[in-house]
Amino acid sequence: MRFLLWPLRAAIFLLVLGFAVKNDQTVILRYFMGYEWSASLVVALLVFFVAGVLVGMLALLGKLLRQRREILRLERELRLKNTLADVEQMQRSHVQPS
Q1: What is the DSSP-derived secondary structure letter of residue 28?
Q2: Most confidently modeled of 5-9, 29-33, 67-71, 83-87?
Q3: Radius of gyration over every alpha carbon of the chain, rounded to an integer in angstroms
Q4: What's the pLDDT at 98?
């Protein structure tokens, strides 16, 4: 499987490189209030792709933090229950009639 991965990576790299070479025209992005940004099409696409990934990661961050807090709460609860069960078992073993 590892040997098949490197040719796949090389093919993807060559496709992306070919895309970059074919789309090297300059584009002008116009913002509000007369602001402009001129850059290569590939650079502009890369910037907006990375920005989209970052926004997606930020959107998931809240849910991830909530899940981690819930996991910690459940682990504390489980430890407490295990400790109580151990204490009860020790009490039962000491109190048993002979």
Answers
A1: E
A2: 67-71
A3: 29
A4: 54
Dig out the tokens for 67 from the structure.
């899940």
pTM to 2 decimal places: 0.60
67 Cα distance to chain centroid:
14
Token pair for 18: 């070919």
Residues in the chain: 98
Phi, psi of 23 (to 5 degrees): -120, 55
Cα–Cα distance measured from residue 24 to residue 26, given in angstroms and rounded to the nearest whole number: 7
| 97 or 2: which leads in pLDDT | 2
52 burial type by CB count under 10 A (0-12 exposed, 13-18 middle, 19+ buried): exposed
